[in-house]
Amino acid sequence: MNHAVGRAIVNVVRGGLIGVAEVIPGVSGGTIALIVGVYESLIDGAGHLARGVANLVVDVPRGRGARRARTHFSLVKWAVVLPVGVGMLVAIVIAAALVAPLIESHPEATKAVFAGLIATSLIVPIRMAGLPWRVRDVILAFGAAALTFFLMGFAPLPPAQPSLILVGVAAAFAVCALVLPGVSGSFLLLTVGMYAPTLGAVNDRNFAYLGVFVLGALIGLGFFVSGLQWLLANHHRLTLVIMTGLMLGSLRALWPWQDEQNVLLAPSGNVGAYVGLFIAGAVGVLVLIVIELRLAKSGLIEMDVPEKTLASA
Length: 313
Prior knowledge:
mainly alpha, 15 helices
């Protein structure tokens, strides 16, 4: 198989994994992007894309041409961003129809699997930040974890029939959550009562709703990603330390035993089976990391995480 075609296929699969995560409340697409090694490439690409579009809108009407926009567009890793984006969109449509009902039917089991996934994936940002960690790093990480744990405890509002203006505003905030590892955009929508309507719009092909949602998401992305891109470029270690804390705190949403108001309950029922599912999720992440490492060594894919980092993980 041609290497370029092979890379495109692998990147579509990477995007598919991210897209599935975005449909699952409590699981962050940013976390999956970290695991599969494309997080920083996507953030960097989104930042340049947003600035390129902004330059295009401002410069062309003023007769300045598209030079600045083309410069930003040329810095986007299109060979990664395009197939990942295609994989995400296809996976979101499929997962909305197949995965979401599975979560509703077996919430404890699915939470146990994804809790194992998230817990094990903490090794990625920890080692990307660099070892050893200082006391300040540990304090910042646990502070971010405590804040996320607290915010994840808010009871969700009943499903709403939101106006299109509210849809756009919610999408702008949800997309900010999408790009932060440990922060789930679906969980945010669930908390404000807009998860079910948004999922219904995907399944029903409500293009008016989806169009406004995408527009709001693009606006939010334009404002938020540039700041995150700057943080990764200028405070790389600090940003990854805080991301680690966000991921740790997000495990609260994946505790298998909680009621509809997100109140944590004591373990009950078939605890052994849930522990087994937790371990299965953890092993799945380790297998995925190993596969990614081998593909990177073969030159089939590029990864944000250095090979020596993953090899020692």
